Amino acid sequence: MAIVLYGNFGMTSPYVFSCMVALREKGLDFTMRTLHLEADEQRNEVFESPSITGRVPALEHDGFWVAESSAIVEYLDEAFPAPAYRRCLPEGMRERARARQIMSWIRSDLLALREERSTTTIFLGEPKKPFSPAGKAAADKLVRVAERLVPEGSSTIFGSFTVVDADLAMMLMRLVANGDEVPARLRSFAETQWARPSVREFVDWPRKPA
Question: Residues 104-113: pLDDT tens digits?
Fold first, then answer.
């Protein structure tokens, strides 16, 4: 069995993060290969053709390629199912639907927050700037939604860890790591996920400061 995860050079992508967490939670061995996106390495035919869309992250598993982080996570959960492997998404149909909703929302909404609190402010020490009105509105929305998702007194959304917990924690850490205001219970939720071994591997990846 050969698994290769393709990521961005610098390892700051929250989507590469999601896939790496899934692989580690499954206990799967894999090779990490990074592409210099600024140099358009993802447009090289060797990568672009088999990945179909030329997007990072992409996963190669025994000759099969799939790109887009949420698709990769779902593929891993089906290719390496429970109980032999830890689940990355909830077991129940409705809970899995909710998990997909959250993953899609995190990847498609809150653009101003993702721009103004880029993951480079977390991992490369890039200075943060004051929020624009749009950035502040996005931050407030993140907090509102997270408060609905994370039950009182719980460190996970669905009762046990899923990749969705890590994804939401990454969004919240854009605020927490930059000293922005976050309710105590959401800060605790994010910091609990941040301490998880599968998460720490990505967080502690050796990077060059900005």
Answer: 999 999 999 9
* Assigned fold of 3-86: Glutaredoxin (3.40.30)
Give me 160's structure tokens. 């046990």
Are β-strands 3-8 and 58-61 bridged in parallel, bridged antiparallel, or unpaired? antiparallel
**Contact call for residues 126 and 67 (beta carbons, < 8 A):** no
Could you tell me the CA-to-CA distances from 121 to 33, 42, 115 in Å, in that order? 23, 24, 10
- Going from the C-alpha of 62 to that of each of 2, 20, 44, 59, the distances in angstroms are 5, 17, 20, 10
Question: Residue 3 corresponds to which amino acid?
Answer: I
Judge whether 8 and 16 are in contact, CB under 8 Å.
yes
Please state the pTM of the whole predicted model: 0.93
Nearest Cα to Cα of residue 33 among 22, 43, 21, 20: 20
Question: What is the tens place of the pLDDT at every residue in 47-79?
Answer: 888 888 888 899 999 999 999 999 999 999 999
* Angle, helices 14-26/69-79, rounded to nearest 10 degrees: 10
Report whether pLDDT(43) > 90.
Answer: no
* Three-state DSSP class for residue 112: helix
- Span(s) in the chain for CATH 3.40.30.10: 3-86
